[in-house]
Amino acid sequence: MSGIKGTSQEYIGHHLCHLQFDLSTFSLVSSENTSSFWVLNVDSMFFSILLAILFLLIFGRLATLATYSVPTKLQVFIELIILFIDSNVKDMFHGKNKLIAPLSMTVFVWIFLMNAMDLFPIDLFPAIAKYMLGLPALRVVPSADVNITSSLALSVFVLVMYYNIYVNGVRGFIKGLTYHPFNHPTCIPINFIIEVVSLLSKPISLSLRLFGNMYSGELIFVLISGLLPWWGQWVLNLPWAIFHILIVALQAFIFMVLTVIYLSTAHDSC
After folding, report:
1. Which residues contact 114 (CB under 8 A, 6 or more apart)?
2. Which of 63, 153, 162, 179 gets the highest tally of CB atoms within 10 A of its CB?
3. Low-confidence ranges of the chain (pLDDT < 70)
4. Residues carrying an active site annotation
5. Would you list the DSSP string of 19-49?
6. Residue ranges covered by each domain of the chain
7. What is the pTM of this model?
8. CA distances to 18, 48, 129 from 39, in Å
């Protein structure tokens, strides 16, 4: 167990705290030491932006160095990812929109990278933050923060609303809310309630599904490290890490698939 905290309870609680910037005092604090509403989760924002930059640098650099003759292993690997995503997008989205494929690629790779941060040793980055940088706390898995997953889901929701109105017009969009699924004037109130609930459930389900799976995965790693002696942790950490690789990829894929499906539905004419 790391020397960050003494007891198992303190250790577990510490690893579930965010490094926050308190806007009321303009200082970096741990979420366990503040109850202020006006705070920013600096660690989640930092790692999500860092991974986005890493994604852009790698893919951008590879795009300039790509070759038809003897491709590198990295080029082959990324081309396989592109073909995999392109194939899935073509199967699910039958309209014409140049944004969907790049958006799907961005969503899948970015979320995969954020999820993969869970595979690093649980004490590595918090120990560096504490002993080398003097930071009170640090969490490195952005997708285990509901604020990050909600932001991603809200971005998708804005696109869904935009294309709904763009394809059907304001009148068609309102008609879809009031005359579906029951095409009768007397059912307008019922239709409106059903469709609004269905519409609002999309970003909520997107965000909470990703957050819940990644938070629980992170929590299991923390519990193993907090409750077992250091020499026995690998017995559970190793199999859980291997299984967690599947969760990391699957959750990124599910988020991408639902994003494409929601946008495909938004392109359907009412």
Report:
1. 47, 48, 51, 141, 142, 143, 148
2. 153
3. 1-6, 269-270
4. 205, 209, 213
5. EEEETTTTEEEEGGG---SSEEEHHHHHHHH
6. 8-266
7. 0.91
8. 10, 17, 19
